Amino acid sequence: MNYWLLKSEPDVYSFDTLLNEKKGIWDGVRNYQARNNLKLMRNGDLAFFYHSNIGKEIVGVIKIIKEYYPDPTATDGDWVVVEVEPFCKLKKQITLEMIKKDLNLQNIGLIKQSRLSVMSIKKEEFDYILALSES
Fold this sequence. Notes:
Layout: E1 3-8, H1 15-21, E2 24-26, H2 32-40, E3 46-51, E4 57-70, E5 80-95, H3 96-101, H4 109-112, E6 118-121, H5 123-134
Parallel strand pairs: 1-3
Antiparallel strand pairs: 1-6, 2-5, 3-4, 4-5
């Protein structure tokens, strides 16, 4: 199993929207590295849902339920989507400020590649953030 972090602006597509819809398509990615990460996702992989720009916090966990296929919103290029469903809402949101201050998370992609919208997360980082959300 692989672990990921996917960013979305909550005023465009929020975790609550996904909860209401029960499943969604992760579309609109127009960065080659982020696209390549979508192509690496497998059914059953878990990802943090991160609200960017507004909130700047991890709010939930989603599950990849369908591997990549062509992005129906793309008019050019080799862009792809994956399908996701909500896995769980975090009991406590984990803010970017908390992550930056935590010495155990100094190498996380969210800090190192802050503009990337789809990134891998190490299992240890994923488990650690889940534990933080429970405390």
